[in-house]
Every structure is written in structure tokens, then in C-alpha cells.
Amino acid sequence: MSKLQPLFNELKKTPKGPFFNPWFDKDEQHDRTDKAPQIRKRQLEAYLAERRNSAKYLFIAEALGYQGGHFTGIAMTSERILLGHHQPMHGISADGTFQSIPRQRTSKPEVNKKGMSEPTATIMWKALYQLGIDPYEVVLWNALAWHPYNPQKGLLSNRTPTDAELEKGFPALRLFLKMFPKRKIIAVGRKCEHVLDAFGTDYIPVRHPANGGAPKFRRQVKSIMNV
Questions:
Q1: What angle do CA 21, 27, 28 make, to 5 degrees?
Q2: Mean pLDDT, the chain, as a whole number?
Q3: To 5 degrees, how large is the angle CA 85–CA 23–CA 179?
Q4: Three-state secondary structure along the chain?
Q5: Residue 162 · residue 125 · CB < 8 Å
Q6: Is 200 exposed, middle or buried (0-12, 13-18, 19+ CB in 10 A)?
Q7: What domains, with CATH codes, occur in the chain?
Q8: Predicted local confidence at residue 124, as pLDDT
Q9: How far apart are CA 131 and CA 220, in angstroms?
Q10: Rounded CA gap, 214 and 62, in Å?
Q11: Which terminus of the chain has a smaller tally of CB atoms within 10 A, N or C?
């Protein structure tokens, strides 16, 4: 944990405004246990630690979503992926997330019986497996680490963060990239491209897989990874 500690020290600093911090805050309405934040924190620790030496590609999207990292602690990774529910239909093995600790959901079963499912996460992980890419060579992250939600709709919602809010994520993004130096950075979607332009780092752009972008996304990822 010592090498991850600076990043988690930064992640603890939730920006002001309607943001949810999955690693240090409890979702009082939807979490199934008081230990949910600790579970999500341990899961992110395991995910990152198991990739420290094997990662080659850093896929960075815009911000954490309520169907994904809000309940798993891991960007572009849903509870159904963690629990193996997407293996029969989509070929996504739960072992590809992390293996050093048990994988757990943190949402209440009444929120979603099989756990939350995020379309972007499903497309991302399915593409990796279909292309024969070792998931431990890939790290998924967000330019803005926390979950921006719509206060009128509640925590089970997403919203587009402002430019000023995205800048609040720069310190955490800087520490994340420092953990994985000299890897290929891949920007998922135009919004993330704008963030990385402002941040000042080189990257390879790919189409966001949502809203009909999945086929182009897969073609671009295949080309980048030469598979």
C-alpha cells in the first residue's frame, strides 16, 4: 500500500459540489453495508497493485459513473463484471479484475438483483477479451476520479462535470500517471481528450464506446495494440 498511499491521500480530497467519493464515503441509501467504502478502497488497491509491473496501456475516460466505479471502486468496471455475471454472455472473466482478495458488490440487492451493470464497462472489458488482450496489461482510470452526480436526481445518476471541476482532478491524475510511467495513454472519448489537452500530456484518442461507438472503438483499440 505504501506506493499507493500518495494517490489515496489525494483521492480522499473530494471536490466541493455534488460528488460521491466511493472509497471514503458511504452511500447511505444504496450501500448494503457500513464497510462499503473500505471494500471499494481495498478493491481499487488490489486492482492497481496487481498491474504495477504488467501494465502497458492506460485507458482514461472522463469521470466515475454510478453504474460502475460508484459501487466497485474501479473505473469502467461494474459489479456484474466483478461477480462474473458477464462471463456467460459476454466472455468477461471476473478473474481479469483482481485476484488477491475476494471480489464483492457493495450495492443493496434491491437496487439491482445481480449488481449494477454499466454499458461502457461491458463494452470495454468485452473488447479486451475478444481481442485477446491480457487485462493485466490494461489499467482503467478517469480524468476526474470521483463520481459527479445530478443533485436533483440523486446518487444513482451521472452528470457532465464543468471544466473547473475537471481541473480539480489534475493532482490525482498526476499521481496516477506517476505510478505508471512510460505507458501508452489512451483517451476514451472527446471529452477526455479535451481534459488531457488541458492537463498537458500525450495520448492516443479513441471513440467513446457509448451511443453506437462500440464498433469503431474496437477497431481503434485493435489497431493501437496491433492484435
A1: 145
A2: 95
A3: 95
A4: CCCCHHHHHHHCCCCCCCEECCCCCCCCCCECCCCHHHHHHHHHHHHHHCCCCCCCEEEEEEECCCCCHHHHCCCCCCHHHHCCCCHHHHCCCHHHCCCCCCCCCCECCCCCCCCCCCHHHHHHHHHHHHCCCCHHHEEEEEEECCEECCCCCCCCCCCCCCHHHHHCCHHHHHHHHHHCCCCEEEEECHHHHHHHHHHCCCCEEECCCCCCCHHHHHHHHHHHHCC
A5: no
A6: exposed
A7: 5-225 (3.40.470.10)
A8: 95
A9: 11
A10: 17
A11: N
Distances (CA, A) of 221 to 57, 123, 184, 185: 10, 12, 12, 12
Say what the pTM is: 0.96
Q: Which residues contact 16 (CB under 8 A, 6 or more apart)?
A: none
Look up cell 476514451; give the residue. 188
Contact 180, 58 (CB under 8 A): yes
- Span 46-80, pLDDT tens digits: 999 999 999 999 999 999 999 999 999 999 999 99
Rounded-to-integer distance, Cα 59 and Cα 133, Å: 13
Mean local confidence (pLDDT), 107-116: 97
Question: Which three three-digit cell numbers place residue 151?
Answer: 443533485
Which is it for strands 204-206 and 184-188: parallel, antiparallel or unpaired?
Answer: parallel
What letter represents residue 84's amino acid? G
